[in-house]
């Protein structure tokens, strides 16, 4: 269930990023390119991005741990941009998928995606149950 929610939130965040033309990030929908195909493409790209972030992102973050210390965590923005770019590269061989024109705009797009994921993560986080008072 968590993975599905994560994919839906990532799809929404990717859609928001594609609405900002200056970032030069776009999603090419499944043919024929109607609204339903765009939503399905966003969900597919978000699932690929979640898998890339989970599998490859974990390894890269562990290897880059000394760089996190040296840069006080700022290298995380570049790593997230790299993972977004890698997702675009994976889907580039297909007729659909994510397109990132420039790496550094991908870093900015990944920052926006992280902010949106953080906001939704805060909203959707399960609340701790308060213990009942017995009177």
Kindly describe this structure:
This protein has helices at residues 2-18, 35-63, 65-70, 75-92, 103-124, and strands at 25-28, 97-100. It is mainly alpha-helical and 135 residues long. Strands 1-2 form a two-stranded antiparallel sheet. Helix 2 (35-63) packs across helix 4 and helix 4 (75-92) packs across helix 5. The radius of gyration is 17 Å and the shape is globular. The termini are far apart. The model has no long low-confidence stretch (mean pLDDT 88).
List keywords for this structure.
single chain, 135 residues, mainly alpha, two-stranded antiparallel ribbon, 5 helices, 2 strands, 68% helix, globular
Shape: globular
Strand content: 5-15%
Q: Show unreliable segments.
A: none
The residue fraction in helices comes out at 55-70%
Mean pLDDT: 88
Helical stretch tally: 5
Number of strands: 2
User: In angstroms, what separates the terminal alpha carbons?
Assistant: 37 Å
Order of helices and strands: HEHHHEH
Largest sheet: 2 strands, antiparallel
Helix/strand/pairing class, anyone? Answer: mainly alpha
How are the strands of the largest sheet arranged? Answer: 1-2
Using the CA coordinates, give the radius of gyration: 17 Å
């Amino acid at each position: 269930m968590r993975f599905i929610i994560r994919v839906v939130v990532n799809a929404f965040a990717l859609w928001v990023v594609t609405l900002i033309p200056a970032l030069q990030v776009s999603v090419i929908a499944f043919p024929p390119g109607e609204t339903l195909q765009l939503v399905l493409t966003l969900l597919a790209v978000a699932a690929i991005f979640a898998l890339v972030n989970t599998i490859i992102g974990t390894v890269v973050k562990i290897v880059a741990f000394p760089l996190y210390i040296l840069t006080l965590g700022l290298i995380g923005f570049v790593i997230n941009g790299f993972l977004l770019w890698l997702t675009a590269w994976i889907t580039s061989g297909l007729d659909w998928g994510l397109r990132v024109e420039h790496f550094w705009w991908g870093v900015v797009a990944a920052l926006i995606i992280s902010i949106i994921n953080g906001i939704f993560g805060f909203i959707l986080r399960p609340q701790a149950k308060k213990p009942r008072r017995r009177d």
